[in-house]
Design a protein that fits this description.
The complex is a heterodimer of chains A (112) and B (117). Chain A is built from no helices and 11 strands. By secondary structure, chain A is an all-beta fold. In chain A, 36% of the residues are buried. Chain B is built from no helices and 12 strands. In chain B, a hairpin with a 2-residue loop joins strand 7 and strand 8. In chain B, the strands form 3 sheets. In chain B, strands 2, 5, 6, 10, 11 and 12 form a 6-stranded mixed sheet that branches. In chain B, strands 3-9-8-7 form a 4-stranded antiparallel sheet, with no helix packed on it. Chain B has a two-stranded antiparallel ribbon with strand order 1-4. The chains are: A mainly beta (112), B mainly beta (117). The interface between A and B is medium-sized, with 28 and 23 residues.
């Protein structure tokens, strides 16, 4: 099994629908992140959490919310999806040490 | 604020040639880390190499090396003897200072590398 698992892998949803992207990890890391990737823009941070009781906004949090249900689970929600939220979404974790980042395989979301 | 700049949107290289992917960064932190990731067409992010700001020697991982020039704030990735499987998107990223215990990665825009046979 992957260290960081994202579900679903692909999703097509309609404008205005609420959608949740889920992330679970077996790394035992405290820190978890949600990134969004758009062509030509690299990855941009949406939200991050350094433990269950701590949630912080990243650079592009508008239109998104998150929930840290447990150390191992970090979910991203789009309350009312819009077409410009069509993107590839990555969950990542980090622990101690210089190699600490682990990325999930990504969720490709299309809003029509 | 940290910033990563990759000025090469795309590069085309002949197989077996060496290739250098450029990355410059901006930060006011004294302690930071620089990463390179490979993203093949399948989409996953694959860690390639890491350089710490206090590391005196350039990092190497197999065919990958990082040409770290601290005074110039550059961290170029060098791939020796390129292979067809190296065709992918490459991202430079920086871990900045510790903010509230979280160490965020800031990414550049990426360079799409194409290896021609």
């Amino acid at each position: 099994d992957a260290d960081v698992t994202q579900t679903p892998r692909n999703r097509i949803t309609k404008t205005g629908k609420r959608i949740m992207l889920e992330c679970s990890q077996t790394k035992g890391h405290d820190r978890m992140y949600w990134y969004r990737q758009d062509p030509g823009l690299g990855l941009r941070l949406i939200y991050y959490s350094f433990d269950v009781k701590d949630i912080n906004k990243g650079e592009i949090s508008d239109g998104y919310s998150v929930s840290r249900q447990a150390q191992a689970k970090f979910s991203l929600s789009l309350e009312s999806a819009i077409p410009n939220q069509t993107a590839l979404y990555f969950c990542a974790t980090s622990g101690q040490g210089k190699y600490g980042y682990t990325f999930g395989s990504g969720t490709r979301l299309t809003v029509v | 604020a940290q910033k990563i700049t990759q000025t090469q949107p795309g590069m085309f290289v002949q197989e077996k040639e060496a290739v250098t992917l450029d990355c410059t960064y901006d930060t006011s932190d004294q302690s930071y880390g620089l990463f390179w990731y490979k993203q093949p067409s399948s989409g996953e992010m694959i860690f390639l190499i890491y350089q710490g700001s206090y590391d005196e020697q350039n990092a190497t991982e197999g065919r990958y090396s990082l040409n770290f020039q601290k005074a110039r704030k550059s961290a170029n990735l060098v791939i020796s003897a390129s292979q067809l499987g190296d065709s992918a998107m490459y991202f430079c990223a920086m871990r900045g200072g510790i903010v509230q215990g979280a160490q965020k990665l800031v990414f550049g825009q990426g360079t799409r590398l194409t290896i021609n046979p």
